[in-house]
Amino acid sequence: MKVKHLFKKFTSWHLWLNLLGMVATVIIVLVGLKWWLLSYTHHGESIEVPDLYGKDYRVATTEVEELGLRIMANDSTYIKDKPAGCVVVQSPAKGMNVKQGRTIYVTINSLTIPRVRIPDLAGNSSYRQALATLRALEFRVASPKLIDGDKDWVYGLQCEGRNLHAGDMVARESLITLIIGNGATDEYDFYDDTEDIPEGENGDIGEEDDFEPVDMNDIFDEP
After folding, report:
1. Are 145 and 178 in contact (CB under 8 A)?
2. 0.85 exceeded by the pTM?
């Protein structure tokens, strides 16, 4: 009887109906979850990264955001042949396929020219040495200014009429003028400022004049 009763329960349409409902519910949940994941991750959808090189950062920002992407400047550099504020490096690179919302990281050309420390050249180097040093630092060098002194020896530096000292910070590519000696000898003695002293009768400088002794009694004698 128990076996017959148990068999009857398994053949009941109520049981199978419940089982079918459970299976259908699981399938619906799985399908819905898959659809949500595909929608959330944009599976199979991609956006081609545009070429941002050389474009102004503001222009690049507009272009990227219109595609559903984001942009962030995470570094800067200086390239003198490129406009200030333009994109010089991007990651991911142009042409790559990325998902919507992806951030494009870029390096932009510096808005200001980097400043360089002036080396200790005045009184310590020749014109040729100073010229090579300044050019290596990417300064422009004007024709030298000549003054009396040892030939081709550096006595000073100027930028736009301003005297420079070692350690001063100057914008790269500034025009520097070196003050160097022309090889002339200055014979003027800055310490010899004694005025000419007139000579005495005998030609001796500073010699006292001769005088005749006077008797004081002769001066005070009564008439």
Report:
1. yes
2. no
